[in-house]
Amino acid sequence: MSEPILELRGLSKIYPGGLKALDHVDIQIRKGEIFALLGPNGAGKTTLIGAVCGLVRPTSGTIHAFGQDITSHWRDARRRIGLVPQELSTDMFEPVIRAVSYSRGLFGLAPDKGRIEEILRSLSLWEKRNDRIMTLSGGMKRRVLIAKALAHEPDLLFLDEPTAGVDVELRKGMWAIIDQMRARGVTIILTTHYIEEAEEMADRVGIINKGRIITVDDKAAMMAKLGRTEAHIALAAPMSEIPPAIAGFPVELENGGTSLRYRGGDGTGKGKAEVAELTKALTRAGIDYTGIDTRESSLEEIFVSLLDHEEAAA
Questions:
Q1: How many CB atoms sit inside 10 A of residue 300's CB?
Q2: In angstroms, rounded to a whole number, what is the distance separating the alpha carbons of residues 53 and 60?
Q3: What is the fold, at CATH topology level, of the domain defined by 228-296?
Q4: Contact residues for 31 (Cβ-Cβ < 8 A; gap 6+)
Q5: Ranges of CATH 3.30.70 domains, the chain
Q6: Nearest alpha carbon to residue 261 among 302, 223, 231
Q7: What string of pLDDT tens digits covers the 314 residues of the chain?
Q8: 303 near 198, Cβ under 8 Å?
């Protein structure tokens, strides 16, 4: 495996007063991936981003970016990192093109009108290039922040709640933009409250709560390992009780005995296989059924379940 583009080891941040925003965080980010960091408000997502981007001074721990210690090679590292902040912090009186061009200059890059045009066109901002930012819609303002972050052509891009306050249609447009950035080789770390955003876009998912990383895994592996399968089997004839032939399966009768509900596979990823075994057992026992509806738990359900487990263990 190639060297990670970003590696955090033992990263902690304790604010005056004792608030522990980060608690010995260990994460490795792979080059070219989209990594989604999920967590409730106050979990430490924005503090983590701030530590990497130089906005927050960690209490302890190390940050390596592009193979170098970020504290001793800060200027070089920061030049290769882009940040789209959660807050709309930009000069609202500036025309779009001037604000984006200025961001490029801040990192010491020579003016490049062609590159700025390419960025603005990719974000559907070219027609608005001479408009003051204050006149744009919320979704367009969010796109300006992305354009400013891309102006210096970063290799690693942080998106802190990039679609907060954006409607569903614009959110999906943002997903397409993020996919284009990944296609150009940009590594993306995304924080979001929208679970479907992580489910749609991410290669890997990390869950953080109270400053601690609960789990990090490939999205598909996490959903297989921590997910649950639920199946509803419509019976040809109602039953008054679970017959012995299927009593060993996690099933119960519902809808007045006209259907069976299976819930299983928790933490094993074997739910679908067990549903197949259940249907075979029904057939062997001479129990007819007219239909079956199977669904897997979503990333949101896994997320909520993990947080509930953490709270119960605390």
A1: 14
A2: 16
A3: Alpha-Beta Plaits (3.30.70)
A4: 2, 4, 5, 187
A5: 228-296
A6: 231
A7: 567 999 999 999 999 988 999 999 999 999 999 999 988 888 899 899 999 998 899 999 999 999 899 988 888 888 899 888 877 666 788 999 999 999 898 888 888 999 999 889 888 899 999 999 999 988 888 889 889 988 988 999 998 887 766 666 667 777 777 888 888 889 999 887 677 777 788 899 998 989 999 889 888 777 777 777 888 999 999 999 999 999 999 899 999 999 999 988 765 667 888 899 999 999 999 999 999 988 877 666 777 777 777 766 66
A8: no
Q: Compute the distance between CA of residue 244 and CA of residue 249 in angstroms, rounded to an integer.
A: 10
Token pair, residue 123, equals 């974000």
**Domain 6-217: CATH class, spelled out:** alpha beta
User: What is the layout of strands, in order, in the sheet containing 289-296?
Assistant: 251-254, 259-264, 229-235, 289-296
Residue type, 163: T
Residue type present at position 172: K
Whose tokens are 């409607």? That residue is 167
Q: What is the dihedral of CA 230, 235, 240, 242, to 10 degrees?
A: -50
Tokens of 111: 């003016």
Residues of the chain with CATH 3.40.50.300: 6-217
Work out the angle between the directed axes of helices 113-122 and 138-150 (0-180°, nearest 10): 140
> What does the block give as tokens for 120?
């603005």
Cα separations (Å) of 311 from 19, 184, 193, 226, 269? 18, 40, 19, 17, 24
